[in-house]
């Protein structure tokens, strides 16, 4: 019996080596950070991982998660990151927007003019304009790297902002209350998109490498093939229907963070397969190159 088990074990290892897809659900738990649930993730071009936590600020790792350091932003809840030019990074927090000029090592508050401090999402547009979606104040815009902000809610009714994304062809989309809004002038004015989104909100919006927009909501995934003008449910079914975050891999695969692990779609969200961490609430996902990261409680998981 022992010989049989040993033979079977090495057969499985050999088969996984021949077919990497068999081992694709293997996530490695990094050594931290242990400051709370990880609600926001960003992988920078140099491989640095930024982890935004519940109530304990931002941690960063420069060695693939083998070790973590705490930034000076250590006492707020972080919901989102957005990369600017060079080493410029913005973070959406429950205490407004923060800015880092050294790749996430240190942060300063950059929220002058934002009357509603709870920021849910932040986005840097191609021309350098920064948008922030706030929980009770709608959308704010900054044209000076966050030094000052002004309201950008023209056309928006209920001002409960949750998610932001930009299409490569210039349109900006925002999840506000239970609607999706679209702007063609960098967020100066907004119009309501066509979408059946009764009683749901957008937790995350991403665009894939073919220009398709995807939105993760309390009731699964929605997609738009016309730069956010209209949206349709993908009909996707999860063990827990709420998608907390979305990311697009280098080979145009969608990753979804749910309260029951990570799911993956290779067909524009029409079907999804479980990709590990089953039974584990996953709050955030991010990708860069061949690295995929998932934020949970506790800490960050990585696979490559």
Describe the structure in your own words:
The structure is a single chain. This protein has one domain: Methylamine Dehydrogenase, Chain H, CATH 2.130.10. The chain has 304 residues and is mainly beta. The N terminus is likely disordered. The two termini are 35 Å apart. It is built from 1 helix and 28 strands.
Core attributes:
304 residues; mainly beta; Methylamine Dehydrogenase, Chain H; four-stranded antiparallel β-sheet
> Helical amount among residues, as a percent range?
under 10%
Q: In percent terms, what proportion of residues is strand? A: 35-45%
Count of individual domains: 1
CATH class descriptor name: Mainly Beta
How many helical stretches?
1
And the CATH topology?
A: Methylamine Dehydrogenase, Chain H
Distance between the termini: 35 Å
* CATH superfamily placement: YVTN repeat-like/Quinoprotein amine dehydrogenase
Unreliable spans are 1-24
Secondary-structure element order, N to C: HEEEEEEEEEEEEEEEEEEEEEEEEEEEE
């Amino acid at each position: 019996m022992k010989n049989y088990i040993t033979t079977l074990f090495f057969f499985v290892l050999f088969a996984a080596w021949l077919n990497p897809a068999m081992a694709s659900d293997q996530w490695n738990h990094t050594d931290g950070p242990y400051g709370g649930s990880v609600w926001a993730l960003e992988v920078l071009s140099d491989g640095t991982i930024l982890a935004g936590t519940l109530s304990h600020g931002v941690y960063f790792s420069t060695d693939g998660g083998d070790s973590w350091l705490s930034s000076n932003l250590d006492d707020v809840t972080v919901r989102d990151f957005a990369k600017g030019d060079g080493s410029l990074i913005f973070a959406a927090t429950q205490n407004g927007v923060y800015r880092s000029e050294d790749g996430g090592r240190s942060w300063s508050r950059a929220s002058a003019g934002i009357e509603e401090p709870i920021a849910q999402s932040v986005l840097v547009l191609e021309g350098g304009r920064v948008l922030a979606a706030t929980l009770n104040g709608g959308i704010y815009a900054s044209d000076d790297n966050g030094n000052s902000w002004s309201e950008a809610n023209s056309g928006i009714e209920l001002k409960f902002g949750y998610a932001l994304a930009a299409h490569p062809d210039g349109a900006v989309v925002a999840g506000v209350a239970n609607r999706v809004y679209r702007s063609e002038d960098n967020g100066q004015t907004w119009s309501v998109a066509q979408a059946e989104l009764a009683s749901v909100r957008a937790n995350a919006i991403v665009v894939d490498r073919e220009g398709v927009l995807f939105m993760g909501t309390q009731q699964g995934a929605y997609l738009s093939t016309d730069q956010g003008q209209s949206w349709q449910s993908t009909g996707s079914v999860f063990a827990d229907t709420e998608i907390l975050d979305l990311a697009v891999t280098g080979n145009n695969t969608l990753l979804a963070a749910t309260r029951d692990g990570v799911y993956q779609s290779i067909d524009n969200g029409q079907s999804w397969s479980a990709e590990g961490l089953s039974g584990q609430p996953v709050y955030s996902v991010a990708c860069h190159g061949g690295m995929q990261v998932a934020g949970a409680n506790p800490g960050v998981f990585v696979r490559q």
